[in-house]
Amino acid sequence: MKTEADLKHTLRRIEGRGYKAYKDIKDVYDFGEFTLFIDHVQGDPFAAPSRIRAQVSQDIAQFPPDTYSKKDRIVGLCDLLTRMFSQSARHIAKGHRGTGKSGMIEIDTPGQEILERTSVVINRNFVEARCVMGLPASGRRILAREAEAMFFDELPKIVSASLRVQDNGKKRLHKHIEVYEDQCWLRSQLENLGLVAFIANGSLLPRASGVDDRPLSTGRIVTFQSPPSLEMTVELPNHGPVLGMGIPKGVTLIVGGGYHGKSTLLDALVRSVYCHIPGDGRECVVTHSDAVKIRAEDGRRIEGVDISPFIKNLPFGQQTISFSTDDASGSTSQAANIIEALEIEAKVLLMDEDTSATNFMIRDHRMQELVSKEKEPITPFIDKIRLLYREHGVSTVLVMGGSGEYFDVADTVIALEDYVPRDVTSEAKNIAQRYKAERKHEGGTVFGTTTPRIPVAASFDPSRGRKPVKTDAKGLRTLVFGRHTIDLSAVEQIVDRSQTRAIGDALLRASREHMNGRRSLSQIMGLLMDEIETGGLDVLNSKPLGNYALPRRFEVAAAINRLRTLRVENRRTVLN
């Protein structure tokens, strides 16, 4: 291993030379209080910045063993250390020092969610931060003195401030870990409690804006308060007793006038399949880990999906047990999105009428009279929602402000008035009794069958030009896979660009390691996620990358389903 003096000598030797001479510093260096790994050196000041790792021995870092004694605590601790490193870098690094990305020191900074990441690694031997540095240049000439300041002044200060236990930070350390641990524990208990979600009293659900997921901090702020009939107490391992609203299994409607908080409540449930940081306002809002947001998605490609539970008897004898299209309609895409979620074993569907296809959700009596069932291929969701729960145990939480027909199929009805929830189940049922629905049930007596699909590995081609593999996240919901762009704009439970990046390499690994012409997509997702659970996200790449965040199997499968080259084989069976 080289020393910091060796790095300084090399930097001074290459002062003023062409930028590619920076390649000479790629190595491992002993900095005394930490070890510096320079894993990748950028070839140009405008290229992706250089990848480095700073590794601190536990003899120096001194993190208490109980803070990383099990998986949940490790994830919580690594999340906090990532945030501390990012904050320190913003305060200490001077930033712009020349051309392109010169002078930057950054780490994969999280948002409001706490996700398993590769930005920080901790074990009983060391703690390691994986970050990037923009090596300084003027034009394409090396500014070695500026690089020296980054390596020997700024980086050691950042490492010391974030990767060592600070006496004044121990309280924050334990709180962050315990808040995360409590959320994970509560989510794991929902099934036993007969719930699909829990929202604690006092939670702050409104966000700053549609593009800012931080809590609302201005104007009139209404915190959550459960209606008495749905109120319950849960005992968290660290926090102790918490009072709030439990949403039971079954069919739940969220109703109310426009702008009264229906979608705000649903959005909180959509995001709360993940845990949130202290101060977010949703620290005690948890949703079943197998809950999937469903919406219409005009124009998406569908490949070999059995949508016959919802759509059949198409004109000219077109079959729907293995339906494919390059340009799906709203109703067809929503049907496919539900079946694809069920294929990956979703247990809760989250839906909002605002993002649903009207003809998929309801067909009223007058339309039934005008267009007979024999001439209408679509069976609306209202006629399948109870069969879905009765036969397969799949619950639905649905925002519905425009059709009281759903009162007949609901188990629970929650009304939002000025952001305050009321349990109006009895009122809704009384209305349903007084005003009998005239429409006819069109869903039959069973939900229907589905067909597990077997992806064809040869339809996954990650090559691009001379590059045998090209995957990249272009923003939060656009994924480049070889020559193809996968549109994930309707996959709302991707919340971090690093999840999108991980999904790209997960597709590559799944196609190369787990697709054998016999395994279904569900089986492939199970093998992939088990592999990640055992070996961590590092299994996705042979290089120690610091910019992965863990996606769920549903979002990985959603990306596969939206790959326009995807081909599948079908194996018809009964959904179970």
Short descriptors:
Rossmann fold; seven-stranded mixed beta sheet; 22% strand; 3 domains; 14 helices; six-stranded mixed beta sheet; 30% helix; alpha+beta; 576 residues
Tell me the CATH topology of the largest domain: Rossmann fold
- Into which percentage range does the β-strand content fall? 15-25%
Measured between the Cα atoms of the first and last residue, the distance is 56 Å
Query: Rounded to an integer, what's the Rg over CA atoms?
Result: 26 Å
Approximate helicity band = 25-40%
Low-confidence runs: none
User: How would you describe the shape?
Assistant: globular
Supply the number of helical segments: 14
Report the strand count. Answer: 30
Biggest pleated sheet: 7 strands, mixed
Structure in a nutshell:
The chain is of the alpha+beta class and about 575 residues long. Helices cover about 30% and strands about 20% of the residues.
Structure description:
Helices cover 30% and strands 22% of the residues. The protein is an alpha+beta fold and 576 residues long. It folds into 3 domains: 2-165, no CATH class; 191-451, Rossmann fold; 453-570, no CATH class. The strands form 9 sheets. Strands 1, 2, 3, 4, 5, 7 and 8 form a 7-stranded mixed beta sheet that branches. It has a 6-stranded mixed beta sheet with strand order 19-22-23-16-24-25, with helices on both faces. Strands 14-15-11-18 form a 4-stranded antiparallel beta sheet, sandwiched between helices. The protein is globular and about 85 Å long.
Write the layout of secondary structure elements.
Layout: E1 2-3, H1 4-13, E2 28-30, E3 35-40, E4 50-57, H2 58-61, H3 71-92, E5 105-107, E6 113-114, E7 120-122, E8 126-133, E9 137-138, E10 141-142, H4 144-162, H5 170-193, E11 195-200, E12 207-209, E13 212-215, E14 231-236, E15 240-248, E16 251-255, H6 262-271, E17 275-276, E18 285-287, E19 291-294, E20 302-305, E21 323-325, H7 330-343, E22 348-352, H8 358-361, H9 365-370, H10 385-392, E23 395-399, E24 412-417, E25 420-423, H11 425-434, E26 453-455, E27 471-473, E28 478-481, E29 484-487, H12 497-514, H13 521-535, H14 553-561, E30 568-570
Parallel strand pairs: 1-2, 16-23, 16-24, 19-22, 22-23
Antiparallel strand pairs: 2-3, 3-4, 4-8, 5-8, 6-17, 7-8, 9-10, 11-15, 11-18, 12-13, 14-15, 20-21, 24-25, 26-30, 27-28, 28-29
Helix pairs in contact: 1-4, 3-4, 3-5, 12-13, 12-14, 13-14
